[in-house]
Structure of ATP-dependent 6-phosphofructokinase:
Amino acid sequence: METSFNIPNLGKPEIKSPLNLSTVKGDKIFNFVEDEESLVYDLSLKEYERCLNTGSDPLCLEVAGPRESIFFNPEETSAAIVTCGGLCPGINNVIRGTVMALYYFYKVRKIYGIPFGFEGLNPEKGHEFRVLNPDEVKEIHQFGGTVLGSSRGAQSVEVMVDTLVEKKIDILFAIGGDGTLKGANAIATEINKRGLKIAVVGIPKTIDNDIDLIDKSFGFETAFDIASPILRDAHNEATGANKGVAIVKLMGRDSGFIAASAALAMPVVNFVLVPEMNFELYGEGGFLEVLDQRLKNKGHAVIVVAEGAGQHLFEQKEKVKDASGNIQHQDIGILLKDVINKEFKGELGGVKYIDPSYIIRSAPANSSDSIYCSRLAYHAVHGAMAGKTMFVAGERNGRFVYLPIDAVTQKRKKINLEGEFWFSVLQSTGQPFQMP
Amino acid sequence: METSFNIPNLGKPEIKSPLNLSTVKGDKIFNFVEDEESLVYDLSLKEYERCLNTGSDPLCLEVAGPRESIFFNPEETSAAIVTCGGLCPGINNVIRGTVMALYYFYKVRKIYGIPFGFEGLNPEKGHEFRVLNPDEVKEIHQFGGTVLGSSRGAQSVEVMVDTLVEKKIDILFAIGGDGTLKGANAIATEINKRGLKIAVVGIPKTIDNDIDLIDKSFGFETAFDIASPILRDAHNEATGANKGVAIVKLMGRDSGFIAASAALAMPVVNFVLVPEMNFELYGEGGFLEVLDQRLKNKGHAVIVVAEGAGQHLFEQKEKVKDASGNIQHQDIGILLKDVINKEFKGELGGVKYIDPSYIIRSAPANSSDSIYCSRLAYHAVHGAMAGKTMFVAGERNGRFVYLPIDAVTQKRKKINLEGEFWFSVLQSTGQPFQMP
Amino acid sequence: METSFNIPNLGKPEIKSPLNLSTVKGDKIFNFVEDEESLVYDLSLKEYERCLNTGSDPLCLEVAGPRESIFFNPEETSAAIVTCGGLCPGINNVIRGTVMALYYFYKVRKIYGIPFGFEGLNPEKGHEFRVLNPDEVKEIHQFGGTVLGSSRGAQSVEVMVDTLVEKKIDILFAIGGDGTLKGANAIATEINKRGLKIAVVGIPKTIDNDIDLIDKSFGFETAFDIASPILRDAHNEATGANKGVAIVKLMGRDSGFIAASAALAMPVVNFVLVPEMNFELYGEGGFLEVLDQRLKNKGHAVIVVAEGAGQHLFEQKEKVKDASGNIQHQDIGILLKDVINKEFKGELGGVKYIDPSYIIRSAPANSSDSIYCSRLAYHAVHGAMAGKTMFVAGERNGRFVYLPIDAVTQKRKKINLEGEFWFSVLQSTGQPFQMP
Amino acid sequence: METSFNIPNLGKPEIKSPLNLSTVKGDKIFNFVEDEESLVYDLSLKEYERCLNTGSDPLCLEVAGPRESIFFNPEETSAAIVTCGGLCPGINNVIRGTVMALYYFYKVRKIYGIPFGFEGLNPEKGHEFRVLNPDEVKEIHQFGGTVLGSSRGAQSVEVMVDTLVEKKIDILFAIGGDGTLKGANAIATEINKRGLKIAVVGIPKTIDNDIDLIDKSFGFETAFDIASPILRDAHNEATGANKGVAIVKLMGRDSGFIAASAALAMPVVNFVLVPEMNFELYGEGGFLEVLDQRLKNKGHAVIVVAEGAGQHLFEQKEKVKDASGNIQHQDIGILLKDVINKEFKGELGGVKYIDPSYIIRSAPANSSDSIYCSRLAYHAVHGAMAGKTMFVAGERNGRFVYLPIDAVTQKRKKINLEGEFWFSVLQSTGQPFQMP
C-alpha cells in the first residue's frame, strides 16, 4: 500500500545510521522508524466506512523520525540553514535544534548559517555564510528573533542554486512561511533539473498558524500567550472609563487563529473579528448595532480583530468614506476605531487602540513552542539525512509526520466556522453566532 | 454500528436544546453533534488495515459537543461542582467555564459550589454549599488554586448521594484525579442503584498528565511552563560554581511527563530521571559514573528528577544506607543530593537542591491551559445536559471526545520509553539511552 | 523653627488616635510621629555651609506618619476616594491601601468610591457612589486599571463641593496627576471658603514620573519594567534584518524618565530621545547623521523616543514637510519612522515602529510599586485623619513626607541633563552627549 | 573641610580624564565631579541644628562619579573582576557595566575575569584568567548567575596579592558580600604594606540587603519581586484547604528585608517573622496562640519567615524537643512546620512549606536592579580610575556615593523595628505589633 502524501527521495539510503537505536520492540530503546509506519489522515468513522464500502485505501501520512539507513555520509555532509520572512517566536530554537541534531546525532561538522534569508544565497548582496556549531547556538533559544537575520522577497532561483553548488551544500533547511516554502520547492525543482543530490527541507514558520494540514506552526502558542495579558489589560482600559472601548489588533492576514485563541485564553473579550467571517458594520444586526447593545447593557467592550478581518469593508469605498471619512486606511483596527469614534460621538469614555504585533513576533518562544521547535528540528534532520527532499516536518493529529511541501502550500489553513474551535470562541465571547 | 467506549445515558434526551445551532452544513454556523460522529481511536495504518481486512469495527471515540436533544430541562436543573485533591493550575478556569456554560448557554440558574472537596458532601463537616453565578466567577480564571477549596480522601458514598438527593442536585461535576474519578464512579453507581436520575461528570485533573487515553490533562502545560525558568536558573547555580551540580525535583509520582517536558522546553538539562525508567546509582554505567564523566568533561551538571523516579533504590535498604547513611529518606531528590555529596566529597562546587512543587501547582493557568480548560468545561456541560453520565471530557488525537470514567481509570498513562517523545528528551539532554 | 513646606490643618487634632503605638524610644514599637520631626530638603554640604554662614534655616520637609492626636472622630468619619486621568499601574493598590488603612487602623466604616473621576461628583452624570470595604478591595491589587473607573477633564468646583457636602464626606482622597491635584486644591479652597471641615488629600499619580519634588511617582517603576522586554525584543527586530531599525515610543509628555530608565534597564538601546534635550534631524551632528554612522558601523539601531521629544520639529513646518511630506503628524515616533524611511530609502532592512503605551499603563503594579502604593496610601490616611489638608504624600530623599499640593504643582519635574542619571543613560547607550 | 568617610587614594590623580565632560554648569553636559561635592549623611533637622548650633561639621559622604584628573593611565591599565559568595540577581549586570565602562569610557583594553571567586587568585586551583571585552559580555545581563563562576571561603591574602602582581593587575573589582569586602580590604592592606599601587574596589553584593549605610544592595529588589508571586500562590495553597496554612521561608540570615518587603508587595501575608524581632511560640500572646486566633477567624494563614528568624528557639533545646521532637533541626521553616503540625494535629487542612531560595537568587535582575547595577558599575570604575581604593560604590539617601569598605563592614544593616518600614509591614499583615 502506498502513502498518498509521497515524499521524494534523492536516492536509496544505503548508509548505516550512526544513531545507536534499536530495531527490537520491548527493549525500552527507541526503534528506527520504517517508511511503512503510516498514519491515517482522516480519523472519522465515516471515512473508515467509506474505505470499507468502496475498498479504497485511506489517505496516509508518513511518520517522521530517524531511519536505519541514511542517504548522506555524515562525515562528508555539509548543511546550511536559512531563515526567511517576518520574525516569529522560536526561530532560534529551530536553528539550535537543527545544529544540535546534525552535530551530536549524526556528527555532521560542516554546518552553516545563511545570513539575511534568501538574500544570503545571492553573492551580489555580499553576505558571508556563518559557521555554526553547538557553542555558537547553545544559548540562542532564550532569545527571540533570528540570529541569522532574515529578509523578505525572492531571489533568482538559478543564482541560489549556483551558490549552494559553489558552497558544496548537501542539505538546505529553509525556515519560513508560505512564500519561503514555495521558494524552497522552486530551488529543489531546479536542483532536480540539474540532477544534483541536494536535499531541500522546509520548516514551516507562520505565526498566523495558517499552514495547511498541520496542527499548529511554531510560534503560534507563544503568540497568543503574549497577547493574553495584553487583552487582560485592554479590559482594564475598557472598564477604566464610562462606556470605554478597547480594540486590540492581532496578527492574522488570512486566518484568525491568534485572535480567536487569545480571546479564548483570556475570557474578557466580547467580540472577535476574523478574516474567515463576514460582518457588516451598519444595518440591522451589524457590528455597530451589537456593540451599541453591549455598551448599553454592560458599559464597556473589548474587541479583538485580526489584521485581515473585514477587508471587504475597504472595497465598498463609498460606504467606508461615509463612515470614517478616511478612505486611504487599509488598517482594519484603525478603521474600527475611527468608525466607532464617529458613530458613538461623545457617548464613549474613549476608544483605546492597541497594536502589539511587533512585540509578539519578536518575543522568545514559550515552553510549548520551545518543545515543539526542538522536536521539529530533530525530525527535519532525520528526514534530510535519510535523503528525503521537498518535504516539511510538522505535527498532524498530534503526531510528527513528513508532508510534501507542495501539499501544504496549496492553500492556507483557515478557521472552520462550523467547527468546535470557533464555536468555543463564540461561547466564550458571547458574541452573535453570525453577523449579517 | 456501536461505539466501543460507550457512555451511559440517564435516559432518552427529548428536550429541544436551547442552543441556537444549525443542523445544516455550509451555513457557517456550528452544527449540533450527533452521537454517530465517532472517530477512530488508533491512527496507525496497520490497525486500519487489520479492521478493513477482517471486517471488524475499529475502536471508536464519541465526539464531544452540544446535542440537539437534551435530557435535563434547564429551568428545573440544578448543578453542583466539586474540586478534589491537590492544587493544579486551571481548576478555577474549569469552574468558571462550567458556570458560564450552564448559565449562559443553557440558562441553568441553580448552580452550586461544594466546598472543600468530597468533604463538602458530608453534612457532618458542616460546610455550606456556595451559590455560583457569572458575577461570582468572572475573574477567577486569573488566580491559581480553587475558589471552592479542596480536600483529600474518601467520604461515605451513601452519605454523599444522600446529600445530592437532599440538595436536589441533578448534575455533579467532579474535578479531580484518579481517586476522585473513581469516587465519582462509585457515586454514580450508587445513584444508579437507587434509580435516581443524577448525571455524574468527571473532569480529569492531574498535573502529572497521567490520566490514560487522554492527550493531556489541564494544568500540565502550565506546570512545565513554570518549571522551565526554574531549570534555566538551576543551570546558573550549576555553572556558578566549579563542578557545580543542581538537582530539580519535579512532580510526577508514576509518570515523568513534567520532568521530561520541562527538560525539553529548557534545553540546559543534562539528565532526566523518570519513574518509567530503570537506573542504578552504582556500578558500571550507573548514574554516578555517567555523572562523573559529565563533570569531568563539562564542569557542571543539571539533573531533573521526577518525584516518583528511582523508588526501587529505597527498597534496597542496605545499599541506600551505605550510600546516604540516612535510610528514612523516601525523597529521591534528597537521596540523590546526599549520595552525590557523599560520592564526590570535596570535589564539587556544591549540590543545589530545588523542589518547586508547591510553586508550580498553585500558579494560575497559562494561555494554553486556559483555552483547554474552557473547552473542557463547555464539553462537560454539553454532555451532562444531554443526560450522559459516568463520563469524562478530554482531548484525544487532538479532538474533544467523551470517554467512560472507568476506561480512563484502568491504569495510569506513562511515558513510552520507545516512543518519539522520550527519544526527543534523550536527544535534547544527551544522556545515555539506557542506564543499567 | 517652622517648616517651610507648611501643610494646612483643619483644626487642632484633639482626639486620641486609636492606633496602639508607642511614645517611648527603644521599646521596639513604632512611635507616633511628631510634627517637629522635620528633614532637611537639600543634602549638599554647600547648602549646610550657606545656612551656617548666613544663619538661615534650612528648607525642611514634614515627616509622614501617624500622629498621636487626630482631628477626625473615626466613628463618625466618612471618606471618599476618586481616581482621575489616564490609567497608571498601582491605582488599585492605592485604593486598596487607603480602604484597609481607614478600615483596620482607624475603624472608619463609611468609605466610598466615587465612580469615573470627578464626573462622579457631578450628580448630572448619574453615577452612584460605591460602598468600599476590605472584602470589596482585598484582591484588586492584582489588577491593573482602576476599579472605580476614571475620566478626564474638569467639573464645576462648586457642584463637586455641593456633592461632598450632600454626601457628608469628611475626607476626599484624590488620586491623579497634575490637573487632578490642581482640581483637588481648587476643591479645598472652595471648602475653606465655605468654612467646611473637609480634608482634601492628593495622591500624585503620573506614570511619567514628572511630579516635582518627589523621588518617584507610583506606576513609574512598573512602566519601565514592562517596557524593558519590549526593548529587548525591539532589538531582535533591528538585528533580524540587514540594517534594521526599531523605534519604540514610550510615554513622557514633558519629561523622559520612562524612556531613559527603560533604556538603562535594557542596555540594547542605541539612542534615547527625550523632551528635555535639543536635537535636530538634519545637518552636521544631527540625528540622521549619527544614525547613519551607527548603521554603517553596527548594522542595526534601536531608538527609544519619549512621546514629548522633538516637538520643536513640528513647528518648523517647512522642514518637516520636506522630510516626511506629512505635516499633520504630531507623533514623534511616526515622524521619525517616516523621516528615516525617506532618508535611508532602500538601504534599510525595515523600520519597525512600536507604541506600547496602553499596554504599559494598564498593567498591574510590579512589586516595587506595590510596596510604594501601600505605604503612600497609609501615609495619606494618617495625614488626613490628623486633619491635614491640601497635601500630598510622597517620597523625597528616600523618606515619606507630606508636601503642600501647591508646592508640587508649580512645575513639572524634568531630567537634569547635567545630572548623574542622564549621564548614566548616555554612558549606557553610547550616544553623543549632545546633538546640535 | 574634610569628609568624615574618607576614601584612601593611591596617589595624586594627574592624568587628564579621557571623558569628554564639561566643567561649566548650564551647558547641558554632565560635569566632572569634584571631591568637595559632599552630601550630609543625616537628614534630620535635629542633627542639622545640632551642627549649626555647635559649629561642628556634619558627617558627610563623598559623591560618586567621574573625576577630571585620574590616577591610572588607561592605555597601560589592567583591571580584573572577581565574583565571590552565593548567587544574587545582577552579578552579570555589574560585570557587564564594569567592562563596558572600562572599555568604552576609559579605553582600558586589558580586562580580565577571575574564575570562581578568590579561588581564581590561587594558582594552585589551576583556573585561568578569562579575557573580557564588550563582545564577551554584551548579552550577559539577560542571565542570572555569574559568568565568571564563584566560590566561598578564604584564600591566602599573600598568595592572592602575589597573583595580582604576577598578572600585573592595576585594579581589582571584588563583587561580594560582607566576607568578600573584608577580604578585599585585607588584600588592599597587604598591597599597601608592599607599597604597590593597585586599587581595590568593592561592589557590595548581598541579596539580604544587609550592607550597612547603603540604601539597598543590588539583587534585593529582584529578590522580593520573584518572591511576590510565590506568596500569591502560597495564599492559594492556604485557602485551597479548610484551615490551610502555607509557610514560605525567604532569605535573610541576619535581617528580614526580603521577607518584609515581599510580604508588603503581595499583601496576602498574615505573619512575617524576621531575625530582628523576638517572638515565642508558646504561651500567652505567643505565635501559636495568635495563629490559632487567625485560623478560627479567617480559616487560613500565610506565614513568611526569614531564614534567620527565631534562632533563639533552637537554643532552648528542651522546649524545642518537646515541640517538634526533632532537635537537630536548625531550619526555622521546618521547625515552624513541625510545631504547627503537632500543635494543631488533625485540625488543619495541611501545612504547605515552600523554600524558594535558589530559585530567587539565581534569577536574572529585574529592571530596577538592572539600572542600579549599571550605575554602580560605572561609579566603581570612575572611582577606581581616579586612584581611589578600599572603597565601595553605593546609594545613600538616593544618591550614589563612595564609602570606605571598613565603614560598611562594621556591622550589618537591620530592620529598625521602630521605623516606618516595619510599621508598614505590620499594617499590611495585621499581625500584632509585638509578640512576647
Observations:
- Residues 63-218+365-408 of chain A form a domain with the Rossmann fold fold (CATH 3.40.50.450).
- Residues 139 and 351 of chain A are 42 Å apart (CA to CA).
- The two ends of chain A are 48 Å apart (CA to CA).
- The longest helix of chain A spans residues 220-239.
